[in-house]
Amino acid sequence: MFHDFTYINNFTPGQTAAKMSVRRPINADPVKGINGDQFAKEMEFLAANGVQEVVIDINSKGGNIKEGFSIYQSIKDYPGKTTTRVIGIAASMAGMISQAGDERVILDYGLFHTHGPQAPAGQKADAALIGIMRGSLKTILKSKAYITDEEAEKLLNSENLFTAVEALNLGFFDRIESTQTSIKLDLSNSLDELYEMANNFINIKTNKMEKVVSFLGLENSANEEAVLKSLEELKNNAEKVLTLENEVTEKTDKLKELTESLEAKALEVTELKTAAAEALINEAVKSGKLNNDLTAKWLEMAKNDLNSTKELLSGLGTSPKAEAIENEFKAEESENRKEWDFQQWSQDAPKDLEKMKNESPEKFEDLLNDYIK
């Protein structure tokens, strides 16, 4: 069952990618470190469940060569893509394991360490066996690196510690992963000290990642690739929103310009129609076709329909329709004046009041007496 596994970090059924870790010493006793046989079984489990890509994080000071061979070969035999990723220090046998991946990655602060096979403390080593193991380790070192047989032999004759850049230049890694972090692993420290320093940094980084994972709505088991993918989606969506906002702003500005232009044109048309209507009515008054008292109504009609008004005015005096309109205006005017008093007649129609005085003196006298009273 999945809960029995020790080295798989974030497998979910149906998932095509998973992460494993080599973050302890390598030891046949699973209590003391990483057991090669158990690690291989967990790799086989992932392969059987269709996982296409496995990332193996490494931060280990190495250990048992035999167990290390099992781990190395289980990575080499994996049917999908494997990425070995040094997230602290890959020392001794852990450094050899880092060479097994299809892609070999080291973080910018990471360290790579090599030395030859050694006998456990307090035990005697068989010289022949040591020689055979040295040959195996040399084969691993030369499998992908840009080194000669002599250079590989030299790396196994002494303790060698390389920075990420140095290890990359020697061909032990395909790329360096940037962390933009200030951590520095001093090459003068012992392997145990370096191992502990890297682990402390990784734990701090993991705690920070938990908050990021929670913010992104991902599962707690989400690996760095999943976090980066989610952040990339957020970035892309933000860029799309910004692009849409810019497009909306541009179209809004364009619509505003068109609206202002149409309003200006409409005002210009209204002014031209008013000027044409006034010119038409003024000409009709000058020619004697219209009475000044009716110009306001004719002007309103001309503003609404200039051509029809012009046609009516051209036939005024002879056209029954024009005369009917004139009479209608007069009748309407007469009807409205029924309620006028003397003062309103004097203000609004003084000429007609004078005409009333001459032609209808009795009506004039009544209007004046009512006003005086």
What does this structure look like?
The protein has 373 residues and is of the alpha/beta class. The chain folds into 3 domains: 221 residues, 2-enoyl-CoA Hydratase, Chain A, domain 1; 86 residues, no CATH class; 34 residues, no CATH class. It contains 14 helices and 7 strands. Strands 1, 2, 3, 4, 5, 6 and 7 form a 7-stranded mixed β-sheet that branches. Strand 2, helix 2 and strand 3 form a beta-alpha-beta unit. Helix 12 packs across helix 13. It is rod-shaped, with a radius of gyration of 50 Å. The model has no long low-confidence stretch (mean pLDDT 80).
CATH architecture title of the largest domain: Alpha-Beta Complex
Shape: rod-shaped
Secondary structural class: alpha/beta
CATH topology of the largest domain: 2-enoyl-CoA Hydratase, Chain A, domain 1
CATH classification class of the largest domain: Alpha Beta
Task: List the uncertain runs.
Answer: none
Into which percent range does the helicity of residues fall? 55-70%
Gyration radius, rounded: 50 Å
- How many helices? 14
The overall average pLDDT, rounded, is: 80
What is the H/E order?
EHEHEHEEHHEHEHHHHHHHH
Q: Work out the number of β strands.
A: 7
**Main sheet summary:** 7 strands, mixed
Measure the end-to-end span: 117 Å
Beta fraction: 5-15%
CATH superfamily heading of the largest domain: 2-enoyl-CoA Hydratase, Chain A, domain 1
Supply the number of structural domains.
3
